[in-house]
Structure of Large ribosomal subunit protein bL9:
Amino acid sequence: MKIILLQDEKKLGKKGDVIEVSEGYARNYILPKKIGTEATAKNMNDLKLKKANEDKVAQKLLEEARELAARLEEKAVVVKIKAGEGGRAFGSVSTKEIAAAYKEQHNLEIDKKKIQLSENLKSFGSFEVVAKLHPQVAAKLTVKVAES
């Protein structure tokens, strides 16, 4: 019996896979637990349409991420932190502060969780920071740390 999996299942396959199982296994385990559904012509067509829609949405998200990356890379942001004796910085710049500075200075939304700091920004100057906007898109942000 052919079954379309509705969720990932160990030893069977991933969501959306069409697998061949015995009729008893399908009737007594897969169908009652809603792990899969019978692979009828209607269900196969629905699966095909669903995959096409998911591909279209994924492509749109990729294009939006590329567009945002281009806009982020062309604009630098200035983050001000307090300085102590001898021009030393108090604390460091966090991803939350970088995201807030982009929102305030350029009106660009970026999730603080997507910004990756290789090291803490504890000194004044200009730094390049990577923002992973999409699994296939990474933007290089220019962050200037200045004394407030």
In short: The longest strand covers residues 137-147.
